[in-house]
Amino acid sequence: MADDVKEILFSREDLSQKCRELGDQISRDYEGKELVLVGILKGSVVFMTDLMKEITIPCNIEFMEVSSYGTGATSSGVVKINKDLDMDISGKHILIVEDIIDTGITLSYLVDYLKNRKAESIEIVCLLDKKERRLKDIPVAYIGYEVPDEFIIGYGIDYAEKYRNLPFIGSLKDEIYKK
Ligand code: PRP
Ligand code: MN
Ligand code: MG
Hints:
Blueprint: E1 5-10, H1 12-29, E2 35-41, H2 45-52, E3 59-67, E4 80-83, E5 93-101, H3 105-114, E6 121-129, E7 142-146, E8 152-153, E9 169-172, H4 174-177
Parallel strand pairs: 2-3, 2-5, 5-6, 6-7
Antiparallel strand pairs: 1-9, 3-4, 8-9
Helix pairs in contact: 1-2
The chain binds 1-O-pyrophosphono-5-O-phosphono-alpha-D-ribofuranose (PRP), manganese (II) ion and magnesium ion (MG).
The site of manganese (II) ion has 2 residues, from loops.
Protein name: Hypoxanthine phosphoribosyltransferase
EC number: 2.4.2.8
Keywords: Cytoplasm, Glycosyltransferase, Magnesium, Metal-binding, Nucleotide-binding, Purine salvage, Transferase
């Protein structure tokens, strides 16, 4: 698995430090508010668990599962909701927890989808931002890092369902996905 990595972009230590910074900032910003973290499966699973441990105010957690990439290397452009929220979010402050924003199609679809549920606010925390590829403009309140236009894997992020369990974030060798 590690042989397929072109370059390590962010180490375990980088990522735990980043979660600490984001967690501090979120804890300050949402003090006294009813916060619900909404992790977007599957990609956000590792980021969600690391980030929530760094949030020092009370919060609820929820998950949604959406997918647009399937097993391909590029987004299909069609977002499929496989699992919706379990909780009524009216009056709550929603913070969507996402691993990476690429075209922006997934997050803009999600925010639109959740808009009529009477949440008090809806914001996004996204670990990685691949700015160059954006098709849909969507404001992201908290961003961990900008990443280059490479195929990103690890720390929850997959290529064809593989590499999610790598403990760091890296780029995938071109020959693996450009076949
Ligand atoms: C990936 C990633 C983001 C989305 C970003 O999810 O985890 O959710 O694509 O791409 P976009 O900005 O171009 O929409 P994917 O659909 O692969 O599902 P997964 O999280 O289960 O891997
Ligand atoms: Mn995803
Ligand atoms: Mg994926």
